[in-house]
Amino acid sequence: MNLEIYTGNTDNVIPELCVVGSVVVRLLATGHLTNKSHIAYRDRFYNSVTLFDTLFNVYGTFPVGTAKTNRKFYPKELTKMKKMQRGQSEFICHGNITCLVWMDQRTIHFISSYHNPTHKGTLKRRNKDGTTVDVPHHISALTTPNTWVVVMLTTRFVASTKHVITVGLGV
To answer: What share of the chain has pLDDT > 90, as a percent?
Structure first.
């Protein structure tokens, strides 16, 4: 397991990735996890479109995770979505990166270089009156079994999937 403890400013920053993106790249590189086609699940704090592009094109890794909508190059069209119905989704693809917004009980912003945005599964949700209904969902891969931890950026427990790297806060 690789762990990097924040000790203040550092000179090991990749300019186009900022501090957070540089930490992700360093942990993947020191763990010899680059160019092996791993899927790297991360918390939204560690995600940006620029980092996803770099990890996919330069380091041969498939990054996946929820997204912060205020990050540079995140599609503004997805942040301005109003009044979506439960189960409704919209996505924008640019190269190998897909940005997706999906409405469950609240809006979920998701970014991936691995998943097909047109694939929709279903899951059962309970309405306020107690009835159950099947609603479409897009992030079934985030709940895959057989978990183990490869990379961790925090001291909190992080679960990931076999042959998958998890970076950031988790379950």
So the answer is: 0
